[in-house]
Amino acid sequence: MLRTAVIGCGAVSRNHGKALKNNRYATLEYCVDIIPERAKAFSETYGGIPLTDYRELFDKNLDAVHVITPHNTHPQIVMDLLDHGINVFCEKPLAITVNEAKQMIRKSEETGKLLGVCFQNRLNKATQEAKEILESGKYGKIVSGMVLVTWDRGGKYYSESPWRGKYSGEGGGCIINQSIHTLDMLDYLSSYCGGVESLSGFDGKLRQTDDYEVEDAGMALINLSCGAQVVAFCTNCYKGSKVCDLELRLEHAVITVRQSGLTIVEEDGNTVFHPATVLTGEKSEWGVSHGLLIDRFYEALIDGTPFVGDCHTALAAVSIVNAIQHSKGRLIKVER
Ligand SMILES: NC(=O)c1ccc[n+]([C@@H]2O[C@H](COP(=O)([O-])OP(=O)(O)OC[C@H]3O[C@@H](n4cnc5c(N)ncnc54)[C@H](O)[C@@H]3O)[C@@H](O)[C@H]2O)c1
Question: Which CATH architecture has domain 121-283+310-333?
Protein backbone atom coordinates (compact mmCIF):
# COMPACT_ATOMS: atom_id res chain seq x y z
CA MET A 1 0.00 0.00 0.00
CA LEU A 2 1.21 3.50 -0.84
CA ARG A 3 1.22 6.12 1.92
CA THR A 4 -0.74 9.27 1.14
CA ALA A 5 -2.14 12.50 2.64
CA VAL A 6 -4.42 15.36 1.68
CA ILE A 7 -3.76 19.09 2.05
CA GLY A 8 -6.96 21.19 2.16
CA CYS A 9 -10.06 19.81 3.86
CA GLY A 10 -12.72 22.06 2.31
CA ALA A 11 -15.64 21.50 -0.06
CA VAL A 12 -14.18 19.13 -2.68
CA SER A 13 -11.94 17.25 -0.22
CA ARG A 14 -15.00 15.06 0.39
CA ASN A 15 -14.59 13.51 -3.06
CA HIS A 16 -10.93 12.74 -2.33
CA GLY A 17 -11.75 11.45 1.16
CA LYS A 18 -14.40 9.11 -0.19
CA ALA A 19 -12.02 7.76 -2.81
CA LEU A 20 -9.20 7.28 -0.29
CA LYS A 21 -11.21 5.65 2.48
CA ASN A 22 -10.60 1.92 2.06
CA ASN A 23 -8.70 2.53 -1.18
CA ARG A 24 -7.10 -0.59 -2.64
CA TYR A 25 -3.82 1.14 -3.50
CA ALA A 26 -3.20 3.73 -0.78
CA THR A 27 -3.70 4.39 2.91
CA LEU A 28 -4.59 7.88 4.06
CA GLU A 29 -2.02 8.74 6.73
CA TYR A 30 -2.52 12.50 7.27
CA CYS A 31 -4.97 15.30 6.51
CA VAL A 32 -3.87 18.93 6.68
CA ASP A 33 -5.82 22.18 6.88
CA ILE A 34 -4.79 25.55 8.26
CA ILE A 35 -8.20 25.54 9.98
CA PRO A 36 -7.74 22.84 12.68
CA GLU A 37 -11.46 22.01 12.96
CA ARG A 38 -11.59 21.18 9.23
CA ALA A 39 -8.63 18.81 9.46
CA LYS A 40 -10.22 17.18 12.52
CA ALA A 41 -13.64 16.80 10.89
CA PHE A 42 -12.05 15.31 7.76
CA SER A 43 -10.02 12.92 9.90
CA GLU A 44 -13.11 11.74 11.78
CA THR A 45 -14.96 10.96 8.54
CA TYR A 46 -12.24 9.65 6.25
CA GLY A 47 -9.22 8.90 8.45
CA GLY A 48 -5.68 10.30 8.66
CA ILE A 49 -3.92 12.16 11.47
CA PRO A 50 -4.98 15.85 11.41
CA LEU A 51 -2.23 18.47 11.00
CA THR A 52 -2.24 22.24 10.32
CA ASP A 53 1.07 22.82 8.50
CA TYR A 54 1.75 20.93 5.28
CA ARG A 55 5.52 21.18 5.82
CA GLU A 56 5.10 18.58 8.59
CA LEU A 57 4.48 16.05 5.79
CA PHE A 58 7.99 16.33 4.34
CA ASP A 59 9.62 13.75 6.64
CA LYS A 60 6.68 11.36 6.91
CA ASN A 61 7.85 8.94 4.24
CA LEU A 62 4.83 9.60 1.99
CA ASP A 63 4.50 8.33 -1.58
CA ALA A 64 1.88 10.87 -2.66
CA VAL A 65 -0.13 13.87 -1.48
CA HIS A 66 -3.40 15.38 -2.78
CA VAL A 67 -3.36 19.19 -3.01
CA ILE A 68 -6.93 20.47 -2.57
CA THR A 69 -6.26 24.07 -1.58
CA PRO A 70 -7.06 27.47 -3.18
CA HIS A 71 -5.69 28.09 -6.68
CA ASN A 72 -3.08 30.67 -5.63
CA THR A 73 -1.47 28.18 -3.19
CA HIS A 74 -0.98 25.34 -5.71
CA PRO A 75 2.47 26.30 -7.12
CA GLN A 76 4.26 26.70 -3.77
CA ILE A 77 2.74 23.63 -2.10
CA VAL A 78 3.13 21.38 -5.17
CA MET A 79 6.76 22.37 -5.82
CA ASP A 80 7.67 21.96 -2.12
CA LEU A 81 6.22 18.44 -2.17
CA LEU A 82 7.99 17.50 -5.41
CA ASP A 83 11.26 18.86 -3.98
CA HIS A 84 10.82 16.46 -1.06
CA GLY A 85 10.43 13.48 -3.38
CA ILE A 86 6.64 13.20 -3.04
CA ASN A 87 4.32 12.53 -6.01
CA VAL A 88 1.42 14.98 -6.22
CA PHE A 89 -2.21 14.80 -7.27
CA CYS A 90 -3.29 18.44 -7.60
CA GLU A 91 -6.81 19.79 -7.99
CA LYS A 92 -7.49 21.84 -11.10
CA PRO A 93 -6.30 24.31 -12.22
CA LEU A 94 -2.61 23.47 -12.00
CA ALA A 95 -1.99 27.20 -11.43
CA ILE A 96 -3.48 30.61 -12.14
CA THR A 97 -0.91 31.47 -14.83
CA VAL A 98 0.83 29.55 -17.60
CA ASN A 99 4.26 30.60 -16.29
CA GLU A 100 3.58 29.11 -12.85
CA ALA A 101 2.15 25.95 -14.42
CA LYS A 102 5.30 25.58 -16.55
CA GLN A 103 7.52 25.92 -13.45
CA MET A 104 5.52 23.16 -11.76
CA ILE A 105 5.83 20.89 -14.80
CA ARG A 106 9.59 21.55 -14.92
CA LYS A 107 9.85 20.65 -11.25
CA SER A 108 8.06 17.36 -11.90
CA GLU A 109 10.53 16.62 -14.72
CA GLU A 110 13.60 17.57 -12.62
CA THR A 111 12.54 15.50 -9.61
CA GLY A 112 11.18 12.59 -11.65
CA LYS A 113 8.00 12.65 -9.54
CA LEU A 114 4.53 12.36 -11.03
CA LEU A 115 2.40 15.49 -10.97
CA GLY A 116 -1.21 14.64 -11.81
CA VAL A 117 -4.07 17.09 -12.23
CA CYS A 118 -7.68 16.46 -11.27
CA PHE A 119 -9.63 16.80 -14.52
CA GLN A 120 -11.94 13.96 -13.53
CA ASN A 121 -14.45 14.61 -16.32
CA ARG A 122 -11.96 13.15 -18.79
CA LEU A 123 -12.95 9.77 -17.36
CA ASN A 124 -16.72 10.24 -17.46
CA LYS A 125 -18.29 7.50 -19.53
CA ALA A 126 -19.63 9.95 -22.14
CA THR A 127 -16.18 11.54 -22.58
CA GLN A 128 -14.49 8.18 -23.03
CA GLU A 129 -17.13 7.04 -25.55
CA ALA A 130 -16.78 10.32 -27.48
CA LYS A 131 -13.00 9.88 -27.53
CA GLU A 132 -13.32 6.40 -28.97
CA ILE A 133 -15.73 7.59 -31.68
CA LEU A 134 -13.54 10.55 -32.65
CA GLU A 135 -10.33 8.55 -32.82
CA SER A 136 -11.96 5.74 -34.81
CA GLY A 137 -12.89 8.21 -37.55
CA LYS A 138 -16.29 6.47 -37.81
CA TYR A 139 -18.15 9.76 -38.46
CA GLY A 140 -15.26 11.63 -40.10
CA LYS A 141 -13.31 14.65 -38.94
CA ILE A 142 -14.35 17.46 -36.56
CA VAL A 143 -15.91 20.28 -38.61
CA SER A 144 -17.00 22.69 -35.84
CA GLY A 145 -18.24 22.67 -32.28
CA MET A 146 -19.71 24.45 -29.28
CA VAL A 147 -18.88 24.66 -25.56
CA LEU A 148 -21.81 25.76 -23.40
CA VAL A 149 -21.43 26.30 -19.66
CA THR A 150 -24.27 27.89 -17.70
CA TRP A 151 -23.85 27.66 -13.95
CA ASP A 152 -24.83 29.83 -10.99
CA ARG A 153 -22.20 31.14 -8.61
CA GLY A 154 -22.64 34.08 -6.24
CA GLY A 155 -23.41 35.05 -2.65
CA LYS A 156 -22.74 32.16 -0.26
CA TYR A 157 -20.40 30.35 -2.68
CA TYR A 158 -18.05 33.33 -2.54
CA SER A 159 -18.54 34.29 1.11
CA GLU A 160 -17.82 30.81 2.51
CA SER A 161 -14.21 30.72 1.20
CA PRO A 162 -12.13 33.92 1.24
CA TRP A 163 -9.99 33.06 -1.82
CA ARG A 164 -12.97 32.64 -4.14
CA GLY A 165 -14.17 35.58 -6.19
CA LYS A 166 -10.83 37.41 -6.03
CA TYR A 167 -8.22 37.57 -8.78
CA SER A 168 -5.47 37.15 -6.16
CA GLY A 169 -6.94 33.91 -4.78
CA GLU A 170 -8.90 32.33 -7.60
CA GLY A 171 -7.26 33.97 -10.64
CA GLY A 172 -10.66 34.52 -12.25
CA GLY A 173 -14.15 33.14 -11.86
CA CYS A 174 -16.41 31.38 -14.27
CA ILE A 175 -13.64 30.58 -16.76
CA ILE A 176 -10.80 29.34 -14.53
CA ASN A 177 -12.93 27.63 -11.91
CA GLN A 178 -16.06 26.19 -13.55
CA SER A 179 -15.70 26.31 -17.37
CA ILE A 180 -12.13 24.98 -17.27
CA HIS A 181 -13.51 21.43 -17.08
CA THR A 182 -15.38 21.70 -20.39
CA LEU A 183 -12.57 23.66 -22.05
CA ASP A 184 -10.14 20.96 -20.93
CA MET A 185 -12.50 18.32 -22.28
CA LEU A 186 -12.46 20.05 -25.69
CA ASP A 187 -8.65 19.97 -25.71
CA TYR A 188 -8.54 16.39 -24.41
CA LEU A 189 -11.03 15.11 -27.01
CA SER A 190 -9.38 16.94 -29.89
CA SER A 191 -5.82 16.08 -28.81
CA TYR A 192 -5.70 13.20 -31.33
CA CYS A 193 -5.66 15.86 -34.08
CA GLY A 194 -3.53 18.47 -32.28
CA GLY A 195 -5.94 19.97 -29.72
CA VAL A 196 -6.67 23.67 -29.25
CA GLU A 197 -4.31 25.92 -31.21
CA SER A 198 -5.46 29.51 -30.64
CA LEU A 199 -8.47 31.61 -29.75
CA SER A 200 -9.92 35.09 -29.58
CA GLY A 201 -12.32 35.92 -26.78
CA PHE A 202 -13.74 38.26 -24.18
CA ASP A 203 -14.60 38.02 -20.51
CA GLY A 204 -16.28 40.29 -18.00
CA LYS A 205 -18.44 40.70 -14.94
CA LEU A 206 -22.11 41.02 -15.82
CA ARG A 207 -23.80 40.84 -12.42
CA GLN A 208 -24.14 44.23 -10.69
CA THR A 209 -23.18 42.87 -7.27
CA ASP A 210 -20.14 43.33 -5.06
CA ASP A 211 -19.85 39.78 -3.67
CA TYR A 212 -17.08 39.00 -6.18
CA GLU A 213 -14.67 40.89 -8.43
CA VAL A 214 -13.88 38.14 -10.96
CA GLU A 215 -15.49 37.52 -14.36
CA ASP A 216 -18.84 35.75 -14.44
CA ALA A 217 -19.05 35.40 -18.22
CA GLY A 218 -16.81 34.78 -21.17
CA MET A 219 -16.94 33.75 -24.78
CA ALA A 220 -14.38 32.65 -27.31
CA LEU A 221 -13.91 31.51 -30.88
CA ILE A 222 -11.50 28.62 -30.54
CA ASN A 223 -9.35 27.30 -33.40
CA LEU A 224 -8.44 23.63 -33.27
CA SER A 225 -5.20 22.50 -34.92
CA CYS A 226 -7.26 20.39 -37.34
CA GLY A 227 -8.82 23.58 -38.77
CA ALA A 228 -12.24 23.38 -37.07
CA GLN A 229 -13.63 26.33 -35.12
CA VAL A 230 -15.45 25.93 -31.81
CA VAL A 231 -17.52 28.64 -30.18
CA ALA A 232 -17.59 28.79 -26.36
CA PHE A 233 -20.26 30.50 -24.23
CA CYS A 234 -19.68 30.40 -20.48
CA THR A 235 -21.44 32.10 -17.59
CA ASN A 236 -22.07 31.77 -13.86
CA CYS A 237 -25.15 33.99 -14.02
CA TYR A 238 -27.87 31.47 -14.89
CA LYS A 239 -29.90 30.57 -11.82
CA GLY A 240 -31.82 27.90 -13.64
CA SER A 241 -29.28 25.36 -14.69
CA LYS A 242 -25.96 23.62 -14.37
CA VAL A 243 -25.18 22.82 -17.97
CA CYS A 244 -21.74 21.94 -19.29
CA ASP A 245 -22.21 20.66 -22.81
CA LEU A 246 -19.64 19.99 -25.48
CA GLU A 247 -21.08 19.59 -28.98
CA LEU A 248 -18.87 18.50 -31.86
CA ARG A 249 -20.07 18.50 -35.48
CA LEU A 250 -18.29 15.77 -37.41
CA GLU A 251 -18.56 15.17 -41.15
CA HIS A 252 -21.30 12.56 -40.71
CA ALA A 253 -22.80 13.11 -37.23
CA VAL A 254 -23.18 15.56 -34.36
CA ILE A 255 -22.06 14.28 -30.97
CA THR A 256 -22.86 15.99 -27.67
CA VAL A 257 -21.09 15.15 -24.43
CA ARG A 258 -23.20 16.00 -21.38
CA GLN A 259 -23.23 15.12 -17.72
CA SER A 260 -26.22 12.89 -18.45
CA GLY A 261 -24.53 10.97 -21.26
CA LEU A 262 -23.52 11.03 -24.90
CA THR A 263 -25.94 11.88 -27.73
CA ILE A 264 -25.11 10.99 -31.33
CA VAL A 265 -27.26 12.39 -34.15
CA GLU A 266 -26.25 10.61 -37.34
CA GLU A 267 -26.55 12.32 -40.75
CA ASP A 268 -29.73 10.38 -41.63
CA GLY A 269 -31.38 11.78 -38.46
CA ASN A 270 -31.02 8.61 -36.42
CA THR A 271 -30.40 9.57 -32.77
CA VAL A 272 -28.61 7.40 -30.25
CA PHE A 273 -28.29 8.24 -26.53
CA HIS A 274 -25.79 6.50 -24.25
CA PRO A 275 -26.72 7.43 -20.65
CA ALA A 276 -23.97 8.11 -18.12
CA THR A 277 -23.62 5.93 -15.08
CA VAL A 278 -23.88 8.24 -12.09
CA LEU A 279 -22.11 7.21 -8.92
CA THR A 280 -24.18 8.02 -5.87
CA GLY A 281 -23.11 10.73 -3.48
CA GLU A 282 -20.87 12.72 -5.81
CA LYS A 283 -21.93 16.21 -6.79
CA SER A 284 -22.81 15.72 -10.42
CA GLU A 285 -21.83 19.10 -11.83
CA TRP A 286 -18.28 18.36 -10.70
CA GLY A 287 -18.33 15.22 -12.80
CA VAL A 288 -18.59 11.80 -11.25
CA SER A 289 -15.13 10.43 -11.83
CA HIS A 290 -12.95 11.68 -8.96
CA GLY A 291 -12.63 8.13 -7.60
CA LEU A 292 -11.80 6.64 -11.00
CA LEU A 293 -9.12 9.23 -11.71
CA ILE A 294 -7.58 8.85 -8.24
CA ASP A 295 -7.30 5.09 -8.77
CA ARG A 296 -5.63 5.69 -12.15
CA PHE A 297 -3.13 8.02 -10.45
CA TYR A 298 -2.13 5.30 -7.99
CA GLU A 299 -2.01 2.65 -10.73
CA ALA A 300 0.41 4.92 -12.63
CA LEU A 301 2.61 5.17 -9.51
CA ILE A 302 2.56 1.43 -8.96
CA ASP A 303 3.15 0.11 -12.47
CA GLY A 304 4.38 3.15 -14.39
CA THR A 305 1.45 3.29 -16.84
CA PRO A 306 1.01 6.78 -18.35
CA PHE A 307 -1.44 8.84 -16.28
CA VAL A 308 -4.43 10.29 -18.14
CA GLY A 309 -4.21 13.48 -16.01
CA ASP A 310 -0.44 13.99 -16.33
CA CYS A 311 0.57 17.65 -15.77
CA HIS A 312 1.89 18.03 -19.34
CA THR A 313 -1.65 17.48 -20.63
CA ALA A 314 -3.09 20.03 -18.18
CA LEU A 315 -1.05 23.05 -19.32
CA ALA A 316 -3.28 23.79 -22.30
CA ALA A 317 -6.32 24.30 -20.03
CA VAL A 318 -4.46 27.02 -18.07
CA SER A 319 -3.31 28.58 -21.33
CA ILE A 320 -6.86 28.56 -22.77
CA VAL A 321 -8.16 30.24 -19.60
CA ASN A 322 -5.40 32.88 -19.63
CA ALA A 323 -6.01 33.50 -23.35
CA ILE A 324 -9.75 34.14 -22.84
CA GLN A 325 -8.91 36.48 -19.94
CA HIS A 326 -6.31 38.49 -21.87
CA SER A 327 -7.50 38.31 -25.48
CA LYS A 328 -9.92 41.26 -25.57
CA GLY A 329 -10.76 40.11 -29.06
CA ARG A 330 -7.18 39.51 -30.25
CA LEU A 331 -6.00 36.14 -31.52
CA ILE A 332 -3.84 34.37 -28.91
CA LYS A 333 -1.87 31.17 -29.40
CA VAL A 334 -2.44 28.44 -26.83
CA GLU A 335 0.71 27.01 -25.21
CA ARG A 336 1.12 23.30 -24.67
N1 LIG B 1 -12.30 18.84 -9.72
C2 LIG B 1 -13.41 19.48 -9.37
O3 LIG B 1 -14.48 19.23 -9.92
C4 LIG B 1 -13.38 20.52 -8.29
C5 LIG B 1 -14.55 20.94 -7.65
C6 LIG B 1 -14.44 21.92 -6.67
C7 LIG B 1 -13.20 22.48 -6.35
N8 LIG B 1 -12.11 22.05 -7.03
C9 LIG B 1 -10.77 22.63 -6.76
O10 LIG B 1 -10.33 22.19 -5.48
C11 LIG B 1 -9.58 23.23 -4.85
C12 LIG B 1 -10.23 23.56 -3.51
O13 LIG B 1 -11.55 24.02 -3.73
P14 LIG B 1 -12.66 23.94 -2.58
O15 LIG B 1 -13.91 24.39 -3.21
O16 LIG B 1 -12.61 22.66 -1.88
O17 LIG B 1 -12.11 25.11 -1.62
P18 LIG B 1 -12.45 25.36 -0.08
O19 LIG B 1 -12.20 26.79 0.18
O20 LIG B 1 -13.78 24.78 0.25
O21 LIG B 1 -11.35 24.47 0.66
C22 LIG B 1 -9.98 24.79 0.60
C23 LIG B 1 -9.38 24.40 1.94
O24 LIG B 1 -7.96 24.59 1.89
C25 LIG B 1 -7.54 25.10 3.14
N26 LIG B 1 -6.24 25.73 2.95
C27 LIG B 1 -5.95 26.93 2.40
N28 LIG B 1 -4.62 27.15 2.38
C29 LIG B 1 -4.05 26.05 2.94
C30 LIG B 1 -2.71 25.69 3.21
N31 LIG B 1 -1.67 26.48 2.91
N32 LIG B 1 -2.48 24.50 3.84
C33 LIG B 1 -3.50 23.69 4.17
N34 LIG B 1 -4.81 23.99 3.94
C35 LIG B 1 -5.07 25.16 3.32
C36 LIG B 1 -8.65 26.02 3.56
O37 LIG B 1 -8.63 26.29 4.96
C38 LIG B 1 -9.88 25.25 3.10
O39 LIG B 1 -10.39 24.40 4.13
C40 LIG B 1 -9.53 24.37 -5.86
O41 LIG B 1 -8.39 24.24 -6.66
C42 LIG B 1 -10.77 24.14 -6.72
O43 LIG B 1 -10.71 24.68 -8.03
C44 LIG B 1 -12.16 21.09 -7.98
Answer: 2-Layer Sandwich (3.30)
